[in-house]
Amino acid sequence: MLAFDDARARLLADVASFSGERVTLSEALGRVLAVDLVAREPLPLFDYSAMDGYAISAANLKGGGPWKLLVSGESRAGRPAPELAPETACRIFTGAPIPKHADAVVMQENTSRNGDSLHFGTRPTPGQHIRRAGEDLARGTIALPAGARLTAGALALAAMLDQSELLVARRPCVTIVCTGDELRAPGSKAFPASIPESNSVALGALAQQAGATVRSMPIVRDEPSATRRAIEQALDGTDVLLTVGGVSVGEHDLVRGALEQAGVRLDFWKVAIKPGKPLVVGRGPKAHVLGLPGNPASALVTFALFGMPLLRTMQGDGRALPMPLMGRLSAARKRSADRLELARATLRIAEGGLSIHAHDNQSSGAATSLAESDGLAFLPPGIGPLDAGAAVEFVRWSDT
Which of 168, 298, 372, 379 could staple 364 via S-S, CB 3.0–4.6 A? Predict the structure, then answer.
């Protein structure tokens, strides 16, 4: 068995990034920038007021105060600012451009006004309550680097930089093939010993979370020729093929052989993790292939920690691997002697940091702990249990 880190490194080695395509800002959430976004103009574009108040020339105030200035003119957002006359103040509003010759803004709350006479007693400092042109970004600087996954804040920045479209990596296509005589579509008529097929919808949701498009093929029965044909069809026009089930060593586990018959070169098929040991990784002529175990927890865990980074790497994501949190186990926990256990767990806020509550039911077929968990606790292998309070890594489902 390959160690977890070694297996993931082998999977991600030499993965080529996709070419770019232009999309509008409204279509860009969650996409990955294909090129640096460079500020063509400074941000802000001009000096403007951070407050409602009065623009003055602090450098030209005489004496020690209090001061009385004539109010002449007004600067409003969206209109050119008037020029500040000597020994006067200009009424100004938040976001309005700073008048020529003004170097400070006095907050409205720190003044009194009688007609056109403005009174204030505290000397303002030059630059007070002024947001300077380029203080956020200078012209020619990189606002967002290639490989940045676009968040709502990143899209706001792009819009502030007067961008209506962005060049992003093409979405990878993921094709899902679920195998098993016992499977039927959810809501369809039951037959003896049948179970609803649940993996494709869950895996598809995770793949979409990573920016992929998803197509699910019809359920494939446990028959060699049917399995081979389904895999050959699924490999056509996809970037990543996910097979689900049939990758172990039983007499009815037909997927590994069918993959090889379809021209897939297998790289490895056992990883020292729990759940998910029988994970098949290979390459077809044009697609990456992941053969996932059939139990729901095994399928989702292996795809979250192998398939999701693969999809992100294909898009050139600068943070293809999830960033783990650190927390402490809320209770002592048994562990595997030779495999990294990826335990479904819930995060809680505790004194001193994050507390990790691993669910009791860690069966690879348990759906309740999948639904209730916040993510996965990484329990390292070793002799003897992990004590309550032991520090371990935790990856949230939302961060995969």
Answer: 298
Q: Match domain 48-131 to its CATH number in 1.10.1740.10, 2.170.190.11, 2.60.34.30, 1.10.357.10.
A: 2.170.190.11
Neighbours of 399 (CB within 10 A): 16
CATH class of domain segment(s) 24-40+138-169: alpha beta
Q: How far apart are CA 397 and CA 400, in angstroms?
A: 5
Q: Per residue of the chain (400 residues), what is the pLDDT tens digit?
A: 899 999 999 999 989 999 999 999 999 999 999 999 999 999 999 999 999 999 999 999 998 889 999 999 999 999 999 999 999 999 999 999 999 999 999 999 999 999 999 999 999 999 999 999 999 999 999 999 999 999 999 999 999 999 999 999 999 999 999 999 999 999 999 999 999 999 999 999 999 999 999 999 999 999 999 999 999 999 999 999 999 997 765 555 789 889 999 999 999 989 999 999 899 999 999 999 999 999 999 999 999 999 999 999 999 999 999 999 999 999 999 999 999 999 999 999 998 899 999 999 999 888 899 999 999 999 999 999 999 999 999 999 999 9
What are 105's two structure tokens? 């803004």
Span 4-17+171-314 CATH architecture:
3-Layer(aba) Sandwich (3.40)
